[in-house]
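residues and backbone:
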Amino acid sequence: SWLSNDLIGTIEAWSRDHPAVFICGHNRSGTTRLHAVFQCSPQFVRSDGRVCESALLRNLGEIDNWRSNEELQNFLNVPAIEACHFDTALGLTRDWPEEWRIPFLARAYFYSAVEHLGITRLAEKTPGHELHASLLKHCFPRARFVYLVRHPVDVVASIRGVLGRQTERGVDPELLRWWQMSAIDFTRRWRRSVAAGHLMHEALPGEVMSVRYERFIEEPETVARQIFGFVGAAFDPAFLQSDLHAANWADWEPHLKEPIGDTGAHWSDHLGAADVEAIQ
């Protein structure tokens, strides 16, 4: 059993000392691919073996009703968890000022994941983390950030590929609205992400590593070894074997079950010349 002050003190001490790794970048920039490599390491793997993102920071407005939020539930592996430290943390902080409560709840959420899923060291990815780097650094002073960036034409082409595959599968068009944005709207999001990546480097010197997606797929072992060295973790080339986690990857993304490489379709399969010119 936990005394309330014991839990608060435990979470604060853990987050202060924990060398978390946050994988950042725009959607379709290789963040899931890299995260899956981390999940092949005994140091970072979840006990359930799944590869998923928390989506915590984009759902902070729904944090008190997290059990009704599919993304927040999914990361903590609900309904497997019936009693959760995070529920206790929510109750203990109900009357705290927001400027204290939000950072603490971010720490408590990840602490609950580590405790309930048997994670030795947190490596978490959610596209857009670069936009919240200051909050994450405030919560985890020893954190390291790995930022992936991919050419915007290929990002938009990859997004169009997802939309096409999901449409063919008969997914409700309402659920695909995000993937239906114009090429220009996606490019604006890409520019915002890259600008945030530059700001991370300036604000957190020595604590951010930028990685070009194109280099990652061309030299996966070399680049992954450099990334693991940057975060201070042991690397084994076996972590790159896609079949280690193939059973846990979603069917909607077949490329994740293939060896790391340039497996995607060419941009011309999804974009017209006018779109490419506008993006450029």
Remarks:
- The beta strands are 21-24, 123-125, 144-149, 208-212.
